[in-house]
Amino acid sequence: MIKDNRDSLDFGKMNIPRLYGKILFPTLIGMVATVSGTVINGIFVGHGLGRDAIAAINIIIPLFMFVTGISLMFGVGSSVVASVHLSQNKIKAANINITQSFGVASVLMIVLSALLMIFNKSVAEFMGSTQHLLPFTTEYLLFIAPSFVFLLISSIGLFIIRLDGSPKYAMFCSLIPALLNIVLDYLVIFVFGWGIKGVGLATNIGAVIGGAMVLIYMFGYSRKLKFYRLKFSAKSMWLTARNIGYQIKLGSSAMISELGVGVMMATGNLVFVGMLGEDGVAAFSVACYCYPIVFMINTAVAMSAQPIISYNYGLHNITRVKNTFKLMVFTGLLCGLLATFVFMIFPSEVASLFISVGSNAHTIAINGLPLFAVGFVFFALNITFIGYFQSTEKAKAANWYSALRGIILPVACFLIIPKILGVKEVWLSVPIADIIVFIIMVVVFVKTHLSAKLFFRKI
Is the entire prediction scored with pTM above 0.85? Predict the structure, then answer.
């Protein structure tokens, strides 16, 4: 199956739209499958376990986003470095960097998971769990934490497998665990009646399968990118620390973006539960389940362009970098418009997937989702621009814009907007943050570079 799903990809010569399409569609399918599994999980939980269970999971989801952010940080960082090395035919250096990324990140994630399991009650309270929801949040966290290291291996592996020329296999590494997770969620909730701990167990099993598929590829079927036996001398450890530091520098904007989603959710949970009670946080959970769909789709748009841009950036082929960037922005714009349309036209249908029709939480959700969707277009464009900065080793710009749109402005808007516009308009906090960041990026773009042509000449 692995050999049959390899593609002949030439990042330096193949027609850009054709090359981008061969990477984008498998990546998009894999991403959509992953987030769809999360959404269906939310639907099962909402209708099978009730409002308290879905609210409890929503409180823990920001931790999940933090773990995904760490995974993306190492995945983006190692793949950008490896792309540049491959363009210069430095295969050994590329393999050393990806091995260091897998190894260091896995150790960090094992330690983090252990701490979350040991201090699960304190963590749940810190994340904003009420005493009423605490039994649900602590149980879910205890059962889901072991999956984090396998999720990390899978996430990093997807970047490397795509770069190695097998985007279809990378798609299956996302698709198969997601489908398995859906089936298991249904069984543990509706057949076995295992409750919220069963949901965590199902996530663990899916994560193990995904991680195993990545490792099978890396150890037995990869083309150029393979694990390299590392040394543990003082010099080697220093070089590892240096390489990991550079990878973190390049990929930290991806972590900040993902962490920003988690911070947005955590801050929103606190604001909504404070203003509208548990019905409010249950309503906000609808947006929190759907927002990652928009995020991951546009992340797929940026990730698919990343190996093309990074490879040609390493070759100083500015024309191909420019053409890929333009295609990425256009695709992101279309995705953002589609998401805005769905949430504005069908808010009741979206909300009813997770919350019982006629409930107070459902009413709050259908009034708020159209407001929340206002910023999706700007959000999509912000993600694509940040993806470009990541791909061309412009870490400072990528980190700054990621922190601004993901953490600084959303938190500030959540605290300020309700006081200025009212409680109902709290849903506009995230859109306003994305609109401000987009305006800043465009102003800086025009002021600094005057025109796109001059901009690309300065790469």
Answer: no
Taking the C-alpha atoms of residue 392 and residue 455, their distance in angstroms, rounded to an integer, is: 13
b/e per residue 311-328 (b: at least 16 CB within 10 A): bbbbeebeebbbbbbebb
- Domain hosting residue 449, numbered range: 10-457
Q: Is residue 246 part of a domain?
A: yes
pLDDT in tens, 327-346: 998 998 998 899 899 888 98
CA distance 391 to 394: 8
Residues 6+ apart with CB under 8 A from 120: 138, 141, 142, 145
Closest CA to 335 of 388, 379, 303, 371: 379
CA angle, 377 as apex, 371 and 381 as ends, to 5°? 145
Query: How confident is the model over 78-130, as pLDDT tens digits?
Result: 888 888 888 888 899 999 999 999 999 999 999 999 999 999 889 888 877 77
Q: How far apart are CA 191 and CA 179, in angstroms?
A: 17
From CA 368, how far away is CA 12, in angstroms rounded? 46
Q: How far is the first Cα of the chain from the last one, in angstroms, to the nearest whole number?
A: 40
- Whether 392 is in a domain gets the answer yes
The answer to whether the CB of 250 falls within 8 A of the CB of 77 is yes
Other CB atoms within 10 A of residue 183 CB? 12
Domain membership of residue 234 (yes or no) is: yes
Instruction: For the chain, give the number of residues.
Output: 459
4: in domain: no
Q: How many domains does the chain have?
A: 1
SS (H, E, C) the chain: CCHHHCCCCCCCCCCHHHHHHHHHHHHHHHHHHHHHHHHHHHHHHHHHCCHHHHHHHHHHHHHHHHHHHHHHHHHHHHHHHHHHHHHCCCHHHHHHHHHHHHHHHHHHHHHHHHHHHHCHHHHHHHCCCCCCCHHHHHHHHHHHHHHHHHHHHHHHHHHHHHHCCCHHHHHHHHHHHHHHHHHHHHHHHHHCCCHHHHHHHHHHHHHHHHHHHHHHHHHHCCCCCCCCCCCCCHHHHHHHHHHHHHHHHHHHHHHHHHHHHHHHHHHHHHHHHHHHHHHHHHHHHHHHHHHHHHHHHHHHHHHHHHHHHHHHHHCCCHHHHHHHHHHHHHHHHHHHHHHHHHHHHCHHHHHHCCCCCCCHHHHHHHHHHHHHHHHHHHHHHHHHHHHHHHHCCCHHHHHHHHHHHHHHHHHHHHHHHHHHHCCHHHHHHHHHHHHHHHHHHHHHHHHHHCCHHHHHHCC
